[in-house]
């Protein structure tokens, strides 16, 4: 899949860290370092603008190491970037730890994964087919 990209940051283009990686790292594009306080959220700009092919979305996801080691995660995870969006990519980060976290220009703050999507056509009906599960949800299938 080919994705057109405009890079208005001084960072390299996003790259896959290994041959089997699903996502590319997104880097912060900041004029000055920023300290994210405990339980504070902020929008981190990337300086990147994408032209995603129709039928695809880009998903902004947390970096697992940052989440585990530092308590920093993507608030609306995964964040969806639609194929027709042409604005700058931003990452909504939240500090779930009890310590301030410094974000500097060029820091890897999230990852971006591309996925196929389909749009639905609604079929209005009076009732749905029954299943053995029915309307049970939130733990209705058991613990094991």
Please characterize this protein's 3D structure.
- The protein has 144 residues and is mostly beta strands.
- The chain has one domain (4-116): Deoxyuridine 5'-Triphosphate Nucleotidohydrolase, Chain A (Distorted Sandwich), CATH 2.70.40.
- The chain is 5% helix and 38% strand.
- It has one helix spanning 64-70; strands at 4-7, 24-27, 34-36, 41-51, 56-61, 72-74, 79-81, 88-95, 101-103, 108-116.
- The chain is globular.
- It starts with a strand and ends in a 28-residue tail after the last strand.
- The mean pLDDT is 95.
Specify the structural class: mainly beta
The name of the CATH architecture is: Distorted Sandwich
Major β-sheet, in short? 4 strands, antiparallel
Which band does the percent of strand residues land in? 35-45%
* Radius of gyration computed on alpha carbons: 19 Å
The mean pLDDT is: 95
Oligomer: single chain
Number of E-type strands = 10
Number of helical regions: 1
